[in-house]
């Protein structure tokens, strides 16, 4: 099998994918960001913040996100007392608004160098550092890739299919029978957000392509994404994946 793609299940009760967070306002996007996924993979590999070549290598992977369950945007109102300034003086009370996604579920697909994808697949199975989705408290609810004996049914892991095909055909990750019944009645579609060329007429800018995570030198570039939809994938009666090998 020639590996082309790595599919990850991003599933947690709470997730935060900030892109414009500053000072007392911590935002979240409606789906995982490129910087968030690169940071997650870097933690799995054990790449330190200052390791810019490794960050650049991960950021060059093409990324696509399928929204298998749209979450609700919620807000935490934080109050912290006795917070010092940068000189350790002037203790005061600081309030902040921290937004997060509740009950969201995503299929994230990465496409690129087969050797790198194979290394990442092993890294997320046995991460060097703990993995979380935007905040340290927001830990995965399920494994990012399926166990080898479950891959034929669950589908996450390595595939030889190109990214658009995996996004289109991968079994829906939703486990709620009620949601599945409603989807069958209404022919629902799933939102996708995929890296694209800047010349794409439907391209939208996202300022989340990481250049450096180093403390005091966090920098990002703008990438182009295309937002689209795919039908909820049909599944065989035994639940087998349409993209598994």
TrEMBL record:
One biological process term from GO is: maintenance of CRISPR repeat elements
> Per its UniProt record, what Gene3D superfamilies does this chain match?
3.30.70.2660
Q: Which UniProt keywords apply?
A: Antiviral defense
List residues traversing the bilayer. none
Q: Which InterPro entries match?
A: CRISPR-assoc_prot_Cas5 (IPR021124), CRISPR-assoc_prot_Cas5_N (IPR013422), CRISPR-assoc_prot_CasD (IPR010147)
**Molecular-function GO terms, alphabetical:** RNA binding
Question: What protein does this entry describe?
Answer: Type I-E CRISPR-associated protein Cas5/CasD
Organism, scientific name: Actinopolyspora erythraea
């Amino acid at each position: 099998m020639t590996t082309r793609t790595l599919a990850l299940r991003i599933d947690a009760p709470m997730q935060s994918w900030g892109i414009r967070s500053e000072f007392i306002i911590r935002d979240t996007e409606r789906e995982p960001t490129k910087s968030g996924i690169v940071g997650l993979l870097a933690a799995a590999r054990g790449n330190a913040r200052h390791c810019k070549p490794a960050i650049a290598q991960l950021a060059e992977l093409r990324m696509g996100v399928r929204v298998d369950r749209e979450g609700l945007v919620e807000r935490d109102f934080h109050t912290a007392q006795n917070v010092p300034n940068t000189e350790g003086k002037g203790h005061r009370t600081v309030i902040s608004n921290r937004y997060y996604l509740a009950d969201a579920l995503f299929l994230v697909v990465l496409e690129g160098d087969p050797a790198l994808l194979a290394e990442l697949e092993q890294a997320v199975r046995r991460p060097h550092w703990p993995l979380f989705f935007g905040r340290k408290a927001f830990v995965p609810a399920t494994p990012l890739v399926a166990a080898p004996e479950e891959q034929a049914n669950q589908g996450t892991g390595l595939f030889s299919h190109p990214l658009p095909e995996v996004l289109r055909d991968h079994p829906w990750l939703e486990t709620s029978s009620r949601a599945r019944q409603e989807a069958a009645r209404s022919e629902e579609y799933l939102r996708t957000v995929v890296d694209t060329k800047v010349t794409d007429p439907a391209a939208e800018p996202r300022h989340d392509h990481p250049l450096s995570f180093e403390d005091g030198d966090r920098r990002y570039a703008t990438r182009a994404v295309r937002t689209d939809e795919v039908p909820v994938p049909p599944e065989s009666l035994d639940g087998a994946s349409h993209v598994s090998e």
